[in-house]
Amino acid sequence: MQYKMTENTVFPLVEVDLRTGESIQLESGAMVYHNGEITLEGKMNSNGKSGLGGAIRALGRSMSSGESFFITKASGLTDTAKVALAPATPGAIKELQVGSEHWRLNTGAFLACDASVSYNMKRQKLSGAIFGGTGGLFVMETAGSGSLLINSYGDIVEIQLDGTKPFVVDNQHVVAWSESLDYNIKVASGIFGFTTGEGVVNEFHGTGTIMIQTRNIEGLAGLISPFVSTGS
Q: Which NCBIfam families match (predicted)?
């Protein structure tokens, strides 16, 4: 995937260059503009499965992960085709390489990927899902090889773990993590975290990388909900 990102802005835009016949997959609604040399095709987010089985798979992916029922395929008609993308949330965009390493993604992290990259719904163990909230019993796990673009609410910070001790991250700040990492989801402290207000956390073990976002979108929702409910 050949792309450039707007600079000196906290809300970046990604412009992807495509050649004739080259295509990418992007989250439904992420396209901002293209130069007229692109075809856009909406399809069920079912990893290529069609018919009733595809619809059931796409619905299941949508219900279990919060992602869109449909996914968009953008294909180049010329060697100078361009399409610009932006995520729904105000924050950073980062490229991950898929192939030698695979990734698990939290809800809302997926923005776009090469046609050679896909993802499957991976069933979590019960200890990782009982308080999951965002992914429930399933998380998104990458397959294939190529480039994957993820997005966050706020900036993205990369944390490397060497396996010497566990590392704890608030559940709402986790964007993506290496497939090699094991993890448990637990209460931060007290009864459901009420004594500290921290709520649910992810405790990671092993060697690998965690991508975290610097802002909590549920915290934002909590701040604005009183104004929405009162009509202020």
A: TIGR00266 family protein
CA distances from 29 to 107, 114, 122, 146, 158 (A): 16, 17, 25, 22, 27
Tens of pLDDT, residue by residue over 122-144, are 777 655 554 444 445 677 899 99
Cβ contacts of residue 112 below 8 Å, gap of 6+?
1, 14, 16, 24, 25, 26, 27, 30, 85, 148, 149
Among candidate residues 67, 100, 89, 64, the one with its CA nearest the CA of residue 156: 89
- Choose the CATH number for 2-224 among 3.60.160.10, 3.40.50.1820, 3.40.50.11590, 3.30.230.10: 3.60.160.10
Global pTM value: 0.80
